[in-house]
Amino acid sequence: MKVLLATQKPFAAQAVEGITGILTEAGHEVVKLEKYPDQADLVKGVADIDALIIRSDKVTAEVIAAAPRLKIVVRAGAGYDNVDLAAARAKGIVVMNTPGQNSNAVAELALGMMVFMARTQFTPATGSELLGKRLGVQAYGHVGRLVGEKAKALGMSVSALDPFLSDEQILAGGATPVHSVEELYAAADYLSIHIPALPSTIGSIGYDLITRMPKGATLINTARKEVIDEEGLMKALEDRPDLKYVTDVMPDNYAALQEKFGLRVFATPKKMGAQTAEANINAGLAAARQIADFFATGNTRFQVNK
Asked: If DSSP codes are grouped into helix, strand and coil, which group holds residue 154?
């Protein structure tokens, strides 16, 4: 089978070497499309491939239509909203992610962002400590649980909301369960967001929720830009000069936020959560193994478009 490694933001050389080794040993041919300048290059590149490994690359309906032999797409990472799942399903194409492979990198970034904002972005101004502060975690999956564990090691108390987990599961993960998003925000000095961008979550975090947060609170978003109601965020920061916002997914209105709120807001220049050598390698190798296993045994364990 022919496997295309399509990455506008390429994997580390060690990851590419490992991916190639795993797939070649399994009897597959690996071709690369790295740093391609235009989406049209991806559309052209999928014409004769059987499998596709991507990172944040967009697998649209147009890409899928241009790939008559394509049987599987693996997104090297947890999020998969950059793949048109319905179009893939209609063509019988399996779409997988690699859950957990980037989790530690994202969790460490979330904690780093908390420290960064607590210390006023490392300016000479007097900051504050995380010890004794309350952390709320919205979605207690791979990343959320790691954020909670690391926060507890710093002396924070941790509460979590996850509609897919029981109270017992959240407690076993070291957090106190809460049962509404309003309750979670109202009791969080720091609130770390880990929800996916779904029709039910897009724009769901806005003025009403943000302004429920206690005095001096900080909202941390290492999930998706789309879950924030940006107009609501702007108004909340205007009405509550004690609140802060830090994100790994730059808002569309970031320039205006920076101009109005200065050190109370910060966004990374590009999404940095998975940008560690370790996460890069882990996710890439997992994607290669999943493709090899799929063709060898039909294993679809991590399929997300069933």
From this structure: coil
